[in-house]
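Ticket #4471: structure export looks truncated?
Reporter: QA, pipeline team
Priority: medium

Steps to reproduce: submit the single chain below to the structure queue and open the exported record.
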Amino acid sequence: MFLAVVVGSYVASKSLPQPLELFLAFLTAYCLNGSSMVINDIIDREVDKINAPFRPIPSGRVSVGAAVIYGGALGFIGLFSSYIIGINTLIVAIIFYTIATIYNVWLKPFGLIGNIAVSSAVVAPFLYGSVLMLNMVSPGVLILGFLAFLANMGREVIKGIADIEGDALREVLTVARRRGSRRASQIGAGFIIAAVVLSPLPIVLGILGWTYLFLVTIADVGFIYSVAKILLDPSQQTARKVKRELLIWMGIALVAFIVGV
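Actual output as written to the record:
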């Protein structure tokens, strides 16, 4: 998440934050992400007794009370760090930390709505980086965030195919569980193809240079390759491979934004 903050800062302003701001941004990203993970472990503690008994809470190494205190402390440090930077960064941090918390507590079982919450949280660090530098979200970062949202939505839906057995234990109503793996592969592919189709936007709008187009084309080819795989074979095994591949193509697309500035 911290890397995404740095990328958002650079894409927005063609420069990096001052060392103190960079450190505070690191604290914000690290602590809020850590707090969300602790909250998730607290909520999932009963399921983890079966699926992941080695984790700190189900194994008994950490009590629920201690986890609550630790998660709360991380959340406070993260929000206070963003407050030191400025009120606008604090607002962004509060909004997306709240979304992450609502997802962990209430939205996780609701499949597509949960996917939207997760994908919004993925976009948050890019927006945070832009607000840190400009006190606003720049057009370039807005497009970056939207494309990242679409690509991650596709990955989350496809990930539901890979995790269908574990989600059944958790009673998570993913697209794969409600509509079947083939339909989930089609919906996931639709989100990713939308990201590919819209990827030339920064060039069309004159926001990024031609170096971006070269690298994003490589990413787009990778996205199409992975989409074709999951559409032809929407099995758990293929979904596991594709969800890993999609991270690679998303990484290349991220580099495209950096070098295209």
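Status: closed, not a bug. The export was complete when the record was re-opened. Leaving a note from the reviewer for reference: Residues 193 and 224 are 7 Å apart (CA to CA).
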